[in-house]
Design brief:
six-stranded antiparallel β-sheet; 13 helices; 471 residues; 17 strands; binds flavin-adenine dinucleotide; globular; alpha+beta; six-stranded mixed β-sheet; FAD/NAD(P)-binding domain
Amino acid sequence: MSKSEQVIIIGGGLAGCEAAWQLLRRGHAVQMYEMKPQKFSPAHKIENLAELVCSNSLKSNSLDNAHGLLKEEMRRLHSLIIAAADKTVVPAGSALAVNRVLFSREVEDQLNQQKKFTLHRTEITEIPKDVLAIIATGPLTSDAMAQEISRILGSSYCETQISKTKYTEICKSNNPATSGGYYGTRDLYFYDAIAPIVEADSINMNNVFWASRYDKGTPDYLNCPLSEEEYKRFRQELLAGEKVAAKSFEDVKYFEGCLPVEVLAARGEDTLAFGPMKPVGLVDPHTGVIPYAVVQLRKENTAGTLFNMVGFQTKLTWPEQRRIFRLIPGMENAEFARYGSIHRNTYINSPSLLSPSLQLKNNKNIFFAGQITGVEGYTESAAMGLLAGLNTAFIIEGKKLQPPPVQTAIGALLRYITSTESADHFQPMNINFGLLDTLRGKKLKKRDKKILHVSQALQSLNDWKTDQYLN
Ligand SMILES: Cc1cc2nc3c(=O)[nH]c(=O)nc-3n(C[C@H](O)[C@H](O)[C@H](O)COP(=O)(O)OP(=O)(O)OC[C@H]3O[C@@H](n4cnc5c(N)ncnc54)[C@H](O)[C@@H]3O)c2cc1C
């Protein structure tokens, strides 16, 4: 490919702007297409690029936190989003909070100052052919663009080749063109239904047991057994717990297979015990009997540092999830790497569709960046913009960028969204230490583990930058 090749970026949010910056830094021309102010998503309100649609906080800036580590790595990779946040910071303890108006203006000004940057204020409804294009249209991608993405993924809305009845039924029961409801295909989703993820070393192994139902296959599930009394109390707390209110543009018609756990609890006293908490075929080796109910935890990554609470998608607030789920035996001291949620969120099944360069496997001209790749959060979205921009730049230069090491936060997040092992149950993910490769050596205290994670991450980032000639 020639040096003068232009890159099209669709969407001028956090990821699109970060991708543009990485390309411009390396001398490449960028044509960005942003639909504001011609058209606004239901959450976007201001005309500037890189709008923070909700909180003005980019979460922790502290290096004893995975969010802080990701930011520090991005600083070292010359991130525009983090530089603009550092410049427009407002006091917020250990968090990196910003003046949102100044922040967006700063990002836009920096891009506009670049000679090779051109901004078009128009909605894109067709992905241009035969050019390198980065799709960064975010969790509220316009409807026309969502249809176009669906087309290029080869999965027309409701006629996709899908293995799971779940998706077939969603397609049958909703017309995506008109419905604001719960719909999606095997490759493209419009709502998420996220179950919490627990850090493995916070589970009390004395109170749980490994087993698969009826001892079929390998015992891959950690089972948390509940007595009848524990189950009844747990259900009452689910019913009473505070829930997150739906946004005005969220009209979730829940699919039966993805009902929030509290909705199931409200259906009847034993609905959960016959649903996600059913104990059949699970004999507790501590008592020799089948418990009244169980919560099943499934490994979220190969290293086994994270466990998913199977079927526990929820709209409970985060503090309530922490309080109520800690009532589950074995989870008394559970630390949550990700909380459950259900909200409007356009994202693709990256593990099956994208290579680690964030390129579509079946069309190498097309890259995805930002929340649409299945990461969750401002910084995470910008991080995937950063990598998409760098990868595109390398391709124009006739080179190949190796993925960042999995000891780094950015590399671990990339691995999570592009590793095919999670394709079947892929759900958006925020950064957390559990994603990073396990540390060598003996068992460490939590604090020491974090310190070691950070030093290994920053060292391996520097080595990677040297290897890839990144300055
Ligand atoms: C309501 C809501 C609240 C959120 N709150 C938070 C929060 O508080 N903290 C947090 O960390 N994360 C939050 N997120 C999640 C996520 O981090 C942000 O949405 C983040 O902005 C995603 O970055 P992005 O660049 O992928 O997408 P966006 O920042 O949304 O950027 C996408 C851009 O693409 C444009 N666009 C869309 N379709 C087209 C098209 N067809 N043609 C041209 N342009 C188009 C949009 O106008 C937008 O400017 C929230 C998400 C939502 C939906």
